[in-house]
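Ops channel
N.P.: pipeline sanity check, posting one input/output pair.
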């Protein structure tokens, strides 16, 4: 091997990381087309000029078995040797492949654009139990903690003959005021 060359084992380590990315059942021995495209994008093999996402998809389809949906590491190496001359024009096949391997070496999938929890004023306002009215207010105690089942279920109060009357024992005071 030439000096400064990247070993296949180093490339295989990155291959395994990308192969299991986003798939809980993946073993790391085979890679699907989506993860192959992600590897090419994250490792900057897709440059938009010489190598595009379409080129990557075509090469993936070319190296995989006819009915398969995944490629092995050997097929991955074959795919890289097909992409290398496109990316590194004017270099020999061996130099181009080594350049490609140097891009892949030590890389792992990055999660771009992960949705963060938005803490908006609207959320605070909508979840403030002190502003609740009517039947919703009954579900929370003074501290704003939910009452659970007691706050949700209609527990019948059979103390009077008027249903859902909450002013029990206040009739006498109301009569005196009038």
């Amino acid at each position: 091997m030439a000096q400064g060359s990247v070993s296949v084992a180093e490339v295989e380590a990155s291959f395994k990381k990308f192969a299991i990315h986003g798939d809980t059942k993946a073993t790391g021995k085979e890679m699907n087309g989506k993860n192959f495209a992600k590897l090419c994008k994250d490792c900057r093999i897709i440059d938009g000029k010489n190598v595009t996402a379409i080129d990557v998809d075509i090469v993936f389809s070319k190296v995989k078995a006819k009915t398969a949906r995944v490629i092995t590491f050997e097929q991955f190496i074959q795919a890289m040797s097909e992409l290398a001359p496109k990316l590194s024009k004017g270099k020999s096949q061996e130099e181009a492949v080594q350049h490609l391997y140097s891009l892949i070496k030590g890389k792992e999938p990055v999660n771009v654009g992960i949705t963060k929890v938005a803490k908006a004023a609207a959320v605070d306002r909508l979840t403030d139990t002190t502003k609740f009215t009517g039947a919703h207010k009954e579900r929370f105690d003074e501290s704003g903690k939910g009452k659970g089942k007691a706050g949700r279920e209609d527990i019948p109060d059979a103390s009077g003959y008027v249903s859902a009357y909450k002013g029990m024992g206040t009739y006498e005071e109301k009569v005196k005021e009038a």
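N.P.: looks fine end to end. The mean pLDDT is 79.
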